[in-house]
Fold:
Amino acid sequence: MANENNDGLMIKLEGIHKFFGGKDVLKGLDLEVREGESVVVIGGSGSGKSVMLKHIIGLIKPDKGRVLINGIDITNLPERKINEVRRNIGMLFQEGALFDSMSVCENVSFSLAEHTNMKRKEISERVAHWLGEVGLAGIEDLRPSELSGGMRKRVALARALAYEPKIVLYDEPTTGLDPIMADVINSLIKELNEKLAVTSVTITHDLTSAVKIADRIAMLYDGKIIDSGTPEEIMNSDNAFVHQFVSGSSEGPIKIAD
Structure:
């Protein structure tokens, strides 16, 4: 795999276009994320945030444009090569995506058991460590059905981090949680991002989450990133589209579908 000079960039989306059923969902999207940076991408439902995230992890290939991960152009790589790149990427899925038939331990250790030569004892120690990091020590034998929504989200976070990736992707991490538990998850994400010095991309429509965990916020609208800046800059942006979104107003250039 050719590795281009990345100039400190861990993620680079360059002119990404993606069509579904004749509809251009992404329309030349550009995004750069530097090593150790926490970037949050905001935008309304159906704006293409999840499609963008799937490009980063290589689940979707662009119809036009390039995707570079730590200097490696994964745009046209075969699946075997993309899997090698994915080993440095952890992902927290929107609903957690835990396997109900498995214990917490089996869920957290899934990738370690499937993709490493680690011995069982090493895996158990790694699982215990990451469950402890997310405040859930000692629950290895429980099933997802025995956990609250917040606990399931934290187990999923432990699984995303267990492989000790360089990049972590968060897909709507606070969806379905009450405000207090959402703040617990936001605080945990911020703490772990800083402690581990990982590069992270979070997609959300929750501005409270965005402001808390972001070094930089980018807004996706009409298939492109239309503005980017610090949380303070975005919350005070004079871009009419961004202003409408952050103010939650029904009046403005963003048209609400009937």
Summary: The longest strand covers residues 9-20.
